[in-house]
From TrEMBL, chains A, B:
Recorded coiled-coil stretches: none
Record protein name field: Gfo/Idh/MocA family oxidoreductase
Domain GFO/IDH/MocA-like oxidoreductase: 134-258
One MF term in the entry's GO annotations: nucleotide binding
Pfam families noted in UniProt: GFO_IDH_MocA (PF01408), GFO_IDH_MocA_C3 (PF22725)
Alphabetical list of InterPro entries matching this protein: Gfo/Idh/MocA-like_OxRdtase_N, Gfo/Idh/MocA_Oxidoreductase, GFO_IDH_MocA-like_dom, NAD(P)-bd_dom_sf
Amino acid sequence: MEFVRIGIIGLGNMGSSHCIQIHIEHKVPGLKLAAVCDISEERREWAGREFPGVPVFEHATDMYQSGLIDAVLVAVPHYDHPSLSIEAFSHGLHVLVEKPAGVYTKQVLMMNAAAAKSDKVFCIMYNQRTNPVYQKLRELVQDGELGELKRVVWIVTDWYRPQAYHDSGSWRSTWKGEGGGTLINQNPHNLDLLQWILGMPKRLRSFVSFGKYYNIEVEDDVTAYLEYANGASGVYITSTGESPGTNRLELSGDRGKIVVENNKITFHRNRIPEREHNRSNTEPFKRPEAWVCDIPVVGTNEDHVGIMKSFTQAILKGTPLLSPGEEGIHGLTISNAIHYSTWTNDWVDLEQFNHDHFHELLLERIQHSKVEKKLSQKVVDVTGTY
Amino acid sequence: MEFVRIGIIGLGNMGSSHCIQIHIEHKVPGLKLAAVCDISEERREWAGREFPGVPVFEHATDMYQSGLIDAVLVAVPHYDHPSLSIEAFSHGLHVLVEKPAGVYTKQVLMMNAAAAKSDKVFCIMYNQRTNPVYQKLRELVQDGELGELKRVVWIVTDWYRPQAYHDSGSWRSTWKGEGGGTLINQNPHNLDLLQWILGMPKRLRSFVSFGKYYNIEVEDDVTAYLEYANGASGVYITSTGESPGTNRLELSGDRGKIVVENNKITFHRNRIPEREHNRSNTEPFKRPEAWVCDIPVVGTNEDHVGIMKSFTQAILKGTPLLSPGEEGIHGLTISNAIHYSTWTNDWVDLEQFNHDHFHELLLERIQHSKVEKKLSQKVVDVTGTY
């Protein structure tokens, strides 16, 4: 195979942007836009004008059966990510699914099972994994430079979204349309990075507010307390109601403290590990000596293009994926668990997560929703917003 | 009255340091060290050598009745702060009490009642109120510069105390000796500043670990989730087990975000308030413009000397106290509530705090304590540790 023929399903904000990057800007070597698909006539007409010669489909199944594509990029609303991915696998297609993997873990478990049965490449658009800052941070942690984790505090309050955003689509910020608020829309990236760097927390307890800042039914303010298997504790804070907000990730470990803020990594490195110091030290107020180290970050953040490149190379050459699709369940489990903890006013054990009950409680919210949005979808330029 | 004759009761780390600042270094104009008192013979002998001519007492009552003093500085172990202060008021003495006001709110309510009945000056050693950084921050908040509070996150993990510290006194880090760990020993300053700057939270829920990092029975790791009456949320994090640790206070409000770290105040100021922007804005991804402002901090941090000066001037000239004794109950209520929430595994409403039940649960812990420390007290230089 010389190149991968991809079909993009869903020509909203993200799907349209991916089409342009592939077909107009030729940013992904080996990847050819072979078809597009959208249920909206307006979007199909747009594609016909923008990408003359590229076949346009109304229905996914027709595109899947067309023989025109080897792979599909699923960029439809969240709820349909798993079903359209599962159908694609059944047609022998490679799948790149937008984040989140789905809205509730139950459907994502089914998607992962379909992927496991298939011999096709399965990838998820966790484009922030291409950020060299987080790649470097992960390397430091996994190489043991931080030592055993004691605490993580991630303040992610820079996802500001005004009321105009929530009003910009009828599906937006509703249980029925998106299945959640900022946890399911903006935070999948951060929740994935959190588990990608540190592994999964063991249990959590959350404090979630719904429609605190905006006229929406879903969450716009979240605090979660996390506990890890080794006893380390953590706090995850996010909101769409604060501006300018903060994105500051602090990891505290036996060998010091790492702070990531403003795309800089600062490592306050203990000359000897704290636990070792503690065992031998006899002075009541003595600390380990700590050095403030600026950690070099090399490389460029290729974002979505980087994930599409990784996907293409995995198909063409069998290289490992930066962001395997099966891993989408992890961040979503944290996300679902944060909702679930507030809904049930209790701890949630992530290893024993009750996928069925979460789904039931989500369905209840959809059923009791009083939201009636009259607005229609509007595709906007999303450069720099993800 | 030309000067205030003060008696200092308790010649441990803090009391000894106060004696030296007053009597040897003459740092507090108008304040004269007129007597000292300690139950330890060794400490009385030390005082006799260091401060020749200053009367030395073994028992507080004798010093109180001596007619030699107008005021007392109570620097004994925490549990005895209220009782010795109450007795001092009954002898017509002005009282400066070390922090914390007491170990449990029930006893502090009694102390405040005694102070209210007295016409004497009552002050508490919240020496961090003299820090011009926190004074400036308070001014910004109280003048409305931040706008309505949305969130506070205070990471106070720079109170590192190794095992050698916990082993340095038989009373240290025990329920019986101190009535708690880092909440009652190091954090009273921060919890006071928190309420001094923002007012009291309405309710909280906590996640406290006891003896997580050290061989102690009391807490050394704390996370608390706070809610304010206006709906603002907060997180307070502290630990004695991390080094180098962090002291970073972030306030997020309608008019921007203020970050205090490394004794610097940075105000990310919105050009127009976020709520106003949100009402008029029609663009889905548009934020208010924010300016990064370095806030000037003027003045010196006089610390304990500053509080002793304020106390002296209040007695001599009737000037307002920087740190009225009656306000000691606020930070202690937060502290007690953080213990109580973990003990009862429930929310704590601070306006309806169950003072009696907290006290009962504390007594249970004292009763069931298995700690037997064989170590004796050692007075160490505490410069720069409070």
